[in-house]
Amino acid sequence: MTEDGGPVRINGSPVALPDDPRVSLLDLLREQAGLHGTKKGCDQGACGACTVLVDGQRVLSCLALAVQYAGREVVTIEGLSEGDTPHPLQRAFVEHEGFQCGYCTPGQICSALGMMAEVERGVPSYVTADLGAATAGLDGDELRERMSGNLCRCGAYNGIADAVAETFAGRTR
Amino acid sequence: MSDAHDAKLVEEGAALARRPGRTTTPVPAVPENWAGVAHADPLSRGHRGYVGTPLARLDGPVKVRGRAPFAAEYGYDDLAYAALAYSTIPKGRMTGLDTAAAEASPGVVLVLTHRNAPRLNPQPGYDMSLRDPGIGFERLPVMQDDRVHWNGQPIALVLAETQEQADHAASLIHATYAAEPAVTSFAAALAAGTRPLEIFGRRIRVELGDAEQALAASAVSVDETYRTPPHHHNTIEPHAVTVAWHGDELRVHDSTQGVLHTAWTLGQILGIDPARIRVTSPFVGGGFGVKVLWQHHVLAAVASRTAGRPVRLALSREGVFRMTGGRPPAEQRVAVGADEDGRIRAIVHTGAYATTRHSPWPEPLSMASQNHYASDAFVLDTSMAYADLVQNCSMRTPGSTIGFFALESAVDELAGKLGMDPIELRLRNETATNPIGGKPFSSRHAAEAWRAGAERFGWSRRSPVPGSVRDGEWLAGMGCAMVSHHYQRRPGGAARIRLTADGRARAEVAAHEMGMGTATVQSQILADRLGLDIDRVSVGYGDSAMPGRFLAVGSSQSAGIGGALLAATRNLMDELLKLVRDGSPLAGLTLAEVGAVNGGLAALDDPSRHESYESVLARAGRAELVVEGSGEPPAEMANVSMFSFGAIFCEVRVSSVTGETRVSRILGSIDCGRVLNPRTAASQFRGGIVMGLGAALTEETVFDDRNGRIVNASLGDYHVPAHLDVPPIDLIWTDIPDPYAPAGARGIGELSSTGVAPAVANAIHNATGRRIRDLPITPEKLL
Ligand code: FES
Ligand code: FES
């Protein structure tokens, strides 16, 4: 399956694409690459627990077939910290109680990073008043609307929003 | 950006390190027979130490890096993956079960059905008397015959080399059925007649005075019917096990609220000594009452033994809906009668819910009205209606979440009829003793919680006239409701403490972390009881090989661990004194004369007589000291009524165009005894409130009434609250230690969720003038 583009790169390392085309990117990560940080909450695209970054964009890895990702650069929760130093957003999640059980957490963190890139690119959301603005902000309902694809049944939403807002303060106008 | 952020974190970290966390006065051991004695525990007497400080979760760094291992993430060479096929009728027999295509499908290792499954003992279920550590709700045989008991029952398990192969093969299983008449709707179940709910073999009916007569004689009264739908917990981590047999020893990597209970129950079903089964569950991706034993545990163990390979059985989201149940549908009557001045004279709270005939499980909704308002007369009762649906089970908070919806809606309606502020009505009916039975409350500061909450929320700005505040298309309103939950410490708690020559202590309890911060909070308590720095203690949990019989249910686990740890620390101090040698500053002191401080023991009346743990052990030539302790029987509830209280305040905006409700502000004002860790406690309170918002506005498990099949078996169709549905949640608490509870803390996991649905419904009434007595309050009900 790898004739064009070669293997998928995950956190900088090549991982061979599966022989079985039914394997999702999520299952490639969890069952073949041994990267269990990306979680499976529904396998149906409804919870966001499986969110990873593909070339910087957030993707629901349960809805992605692994074979489609030849040559692409995937970053998972395991790829965010540099050695033992966690990503600032990861630290902020601890400081702001952005989780309880921790199961939705990797998806929330990856999603927030992808979301911030969208905001900086000026991608509007459902609650954006000015669709033509060059960049959007995180004020008002923006942050919560843009993170609404990531469910947290423990209800740590306030802490998640605080962690994201604090980490990205100053990155938006 | 990141530099500034890091600097802030470094500063905060340093501040935390400098904070006088460690206890500085000697903390004596809690004496024996403490249970029932007020203020027997020094940690409930205004003690200062780590307890009460907002320590960040110790497992936070692991969780945010995705390095916390969950049940479906344990690898074995030769691991085989399981998938399940489910029945498509609610009741009857399978006349045919065609597995040939599945068996021939690539990669399939085994197809397990009732035809080839080994003989098993019945599921013992949960033992209400708590004598046996049964866990699980169903009492049905697991894949032992051709009978179908509900639509969604597992009828076959497929084991294959990969999950994809197993899933595909499971889709090839084909059953034919001889269907039998089934009760597949709550309405049909009610129509067939109800039976009184019994717990411990006794009806839960409470009767005091003649409530119906007092109601009829009341100057003002309300008498209404409230309906609530079924709910599913929908933890984001679906149920999963990874199992492996080593000879006749079974290893289970689980996601459970009861490690020891799961081992025991599996042992009964499989017919093997539970001591041969080791269940570990270091992280649980949400529990809320549903992470107990269900059929997948049994099926995975059996498939693994039959195939001779380790097995992973992770339920799909659909599987979670099909084979694990949640809160049952219910219909309740609440009637409240009062004098003109608001004094309540009668409370009638009766209702019925749906459960299964084979495994009736209590949803004691009428108990919500039992312990709160002073009233001369009560009739409280719950009954069951039998249906052929997926087994109902405990869901944060059994009985109360829907019981309070009815009670607290009715009280709000009564306030409206009286023309009285709903908070004033509640304050007029405050009581210092439990209205049923007359026991004094151990510590009840509900009135303070109401007043402080009203002040902080700005309740005085609420317009008493419904439908009078408009902002364009939006109607705004405020509502409130009481929350309450009983304190509970269950028997069987035990702990082991290992003190090592380097002056470190590790406690072990067979308890659970599902997001409550168990290890963090218990480490704080252990550090204070032993006078150690927080980084010199650790708490192990989540392993059936550890001591104690704990279930993470009913907000009881903290008290259970607390009771066990205080006994173990007492035994540790006692054993240490036996090791003390002549010449030690501690020589000659008895247990009652010492306390723990500064990494060792000291005389209570002269803390300069101190010897460190390292020194005591070194002088005695000991590398370590290991002791165990068991929690005393929970006698603290014998003479006092122990409840947590509080109030939820919320503000809603309802669109007059679409009927959509948005919750714009929410406040919880809580009286739960001592708050052990403000961070994790706030998290728990918020989590409960968020779950309550779901029950109020969006959540409903929808059954097809014709065949009992769940039609919204996905997170796309069952709507749990998302980020945008949840405003910033404000919290305050009284933080008054309960004199009878270990460390003064009454338990918090279930408290806040109880009053959210009625607070929202009452706010919607205030905003729109519409009284909705039927959850969830979806837009069409407001148009
Ligand atoms: S697991 Fe992918 S969205 Fe839920
Ligand atoms: S932290 Fe448990 S689901 Fe979000």
UniProtKB/TrEMBL annotation, chain A:
Pfam families: Fer2, Fer2_2. CDD domains: fer2. The keyword Endoplasmic reticulum does not apply. InterPro entries: 2Fe-2S-bd, 2Fe-2S-bd_dom_sf, 2Fe-2S_ferredoxin-like_sf, 2Fe-2S_ferredoxin-type, 2Fe2S_fd_BS, Aldehyde_Oxdr_Iron-Sulfur, Beta-grasp_dom_sf. Residues 1-80 form the 2Fe-2S ferredoxin-type domain. Pathway: Alkaloid degradation; nicotine degradation. Keywords: 2Fe-2S, Iron, Iron-sulfur, Metal-binding, Oxidoreductase. Transmembrane segments: none annotated. One of its GO terms (molecular function) is metal ion binding. The keyword Iron applies. PANTHER family: OXIDOREDUCTASE WITH IRON-SULFUR SUBUNIT, OXIDOREDUCTASE, IRON-SULPHUR BINDING SUBUNIT-RELATED-RELATED. This is Xanthine dehydrogenase YagT iron-sulfur-binding subunit. It comes from Pseudosporangium ferrugineum.
From TrEMBL, chain B:
It comes from the Bacteria. GO terms for molecular function: iron ion binding; oxidoreductase activity. Signal peptide: none annotated. Keywords: Molybdenum, Oxidoreductase. SMART domains: Ald_Xan_dh_C. Residues 65-181 form the Aldehyde oxidase/xanthine dehydrogenase a/b hammerhead domain. The keyword Ligase does not apply. The keyword Oxidoreductase applies. InterPro entries: Ald_Oxase/Xan_DH_a/b, Ald_Oxase/Xan_DH_a/b_sf, Ald_Oxase/xanthine_DH-like, AldOxase/xan_DH_MoCoBD1, AldOxase/xan_DH_MoCoBD2, AldOxase/xan_DH_Mopterin-bd_sf. This is Xanthine dehydrogenase molybdenum binding subunit apoprotein. It comes from Pseudosporangium ferrugineum. The lineage of its organism: Bacteria, Bacillati, Actinomycetota, Actinomycetes, Micromonosporales.
